[in-house]
Amino acid sequence: MGYVVTNRRTLSMCEERILVRDKRLQRAFDHEQMAGWVSSLAPWQVVCHLTWRDRVGYDGIARGISSTSAAKCFEGFMRRELPHVSYFYAVEPNPSRYGTHVHALWADARGVYRKEAWASWFKRFGRAKIEPVRNCDDVSQYLSKYVTKRVDGVDGVWWNVKLQWHRVQALNDASFRLTDGIFGQPML
After folding, report:
1. pTM value?
2. Tens of pLDDT along 152-167?
3. What are the chain's domains?
4. In this structure, how many other beta carbons lie within 10 angstroms of the beta carbon of residue 60?
């Protein structure tokens, strides 16, 4: 079972993981479960593919960014530039060179101008492709493919999710109620 910690609450990824003996079949089941869970988190509106400029070392060799640095950069960018947007992302190793890139889904993106977000990312980090979601299930399947894929002998890649408080409340079937703040009693 996977968990996501967001706003100091833990969301269960699924009630029960389907286990099978065949590893290929297990990966397919994991992919389907992850895709269903990602799809259930929010009505995704934007899909992004983000890269970083390579840094050339003193030896003249171009070096990409590590998974940890990619995650920090992406989350920092979202915190500074788009704090009201809910997101799910996966950091994937580049297929042909050292470094990583990010695939992300955004929800609660009303009022976000994709061209402005693209320009902000490009100025600071590198190339980006930011486009509207045409089919929510397709993009959930697409991102789940990266999360459950086997890379360099390791199952899966780094991923994370950040949801706005109203999304967390909806997932936990908890309605918003004001309390008096002293004893936690509902206000009348």
Report:
1. 0.75
2. 555 567 888 888 877 7
3. 3-171 (3.30.70.1910)
4. 6
